[in-house]
Amino acid sequence: MKNRTLKTVKTSSSLICLVFFSFIWPLITTNFVYDVIVSIRSAITSGDSGLLIITTIGGCILYTVPSFLMYIALDALYTEWHSFFKSHRVEREFFIVIFYGSLLLMTQMYYFYPIEPMTSFIGLIITLALVRFSTCKPDILFPKVFIALQVFLLVQWGNVIQGFTPFRIGSNDLFVSLKIASSYLDHLANINKIAFSFMLPLFLSSFMTAFIIKLYNQNLHVAEENYEKELAVKAMQKKIMTNRTYQEINALAHDLKTPLVTIQGLMSLLMLTKDTDKIEPYGQTVNDAIQKMSDMISSFLYGNIKELIRVDELLNYIRTQIPIEREDIEFTNSIADNLPPLYLNKIRMARALINLIENAILAPTDQLTKKILVKAYINCDKIIISITDNGIGIKDVDLEKIWTIGYSSKETSGLGLPFAKQTIIENNGQIELTSTYGRGTTAKIYFPIHTVNERGTTHDND
Amino acid sequence: MKWGQLMNNKDYLKKLSLIFVGIVIVFSINTILNFNKGYNSNTINYPLDPFSAELLLITSAGQSTDAYIFHDIINKLQLNNHFMPEANTYDLREYSSVVIVVGHSEVGMMLNDVLYQAEVKRIRKILQTAEAEQLPVIAAYLGGDERLSNETQSLLKSVCDEADYIIMTSDTDKGPLIKRLTNDGQTPITCVPTIDQLSMTLASIFK
How many Å lie between the alpha carbon of A176 and the closest alpha carbon of chain B? Predict the structure, then answer.
């Protein structure tokens, strides 16, 4: 807080110094003004119109600097004291116009220096209008510097155009002397043309600058909006995935009913039996069922709980979870012999594979019988489980989108495949989906072969 | 395309408006670039009785650059002259005529380290001495409308009141001002619209 205050004081002091500097500019540049007059005299005596042109350029720059500095300093000062001015409902433009006008008035009152109030003010108004048009951020000074420099130089060139004199533009001693000398050297039309040839590009350039800054700001605004939307979409997707987890928990709760029914049945039998010899095996079976339930819950709650499981055991478990009663579906399992065991979270992986099989079931087909083939085999040091259907397949353009959360071509939630992919990756696996439109789709899941070393620790052979 | 349809076609009207705006801009630019003061040679009067140009003294009232222009014109006309922007009464002795070029310049005064009141005083003394020594005084004003500030008008009035002849540039009708400067037409005056026409006038003024 203290550092911040110190910084504000330092910046404000520098800016006030800059305002003061622009105010005393006439005092500092008095010799340059004299030089302009001396140059005009020399040009008249020698008939050198080139010298007159150089003098004109010098005069224009001499008058551009204080106007430009004053505007920039006042704008930066407002930015520095933004909160103070806002609390007093003082608008930026109002503050700048009032202070700028006051400083101009004071310069005219206290110095002999011939100022050009009309052009300075016109320059200020055009600059403020262009800055507002460009919609540049108030606290960023660079675009304003660029616009202001061009506009103030542009309007100062207006001082040397004879046609503007009736509007009190270029009516001070310096520019009047320049114009009279130009007229005498028969150079007025040329000076007008030179001024115009400076003014036109500066005019176009200042407007183009404002326009480009406006476009840039619009693009920036759109990009910011898109970024925010993207963040919102990601948050939503995360929420959806969480919901999906709850759905999977529902499925798990359903699976838990099987051991519960076993426990319930055995407990009923235990209550009825009078044969004490059966108590022990029944108790053991109840204990096994409870252990199974505990394992299922742990597996689902903690994704990192993994176990060695045979492929046929996993696929049989999955098969029991999918009751296929439709006669038009032909479900085939093909498991190669002597497959090494998989090391994974059984319950979660089962849910992932069930999602893939359900997708195969739901896939529309133009065949009389929907054929689903689940194969397990080993290839290139990988255990592969493939699920193939004879549905109509997926178009190439849609194939790229299927992993996107929420994308679905079957009016489903569009969460199944992303969930399956996430689970497979969490279990060190990879998934690949290939499809030929009109012929069917194959999902291949690659698992690393798992080995157990002599010390009993396990690792994947990737 | 029918006229009604044409009028309903916004794009067509937009293009038409842009063409019109373009024409106006081009016309305005052309007018500004070719800004020239009106000049009618019939309005220029030349003196019937020219002044002696044996040796002219050219001085300034207000220290503007206009005096340098006048001096340059006189030089080009090869008239014998001395140019002394800050001439004093003792400088008047050897001259046949005195030309006072009026035009107040703040920067010119500061550059020559002269205050306005001192300048007024100096001019007044020169005019008094010229009158005493019966030297013809020619008041010249080349500043046109642009330099006609209060200070210039005041100097102009002081000089013209005592002048034998007035030469001035003015692009607009300055009837009341001329009337005031010439004491209701008593002092002869030549008005030229632009400086480049001054040469001819000066040639006819001086023998």
Answer: 6
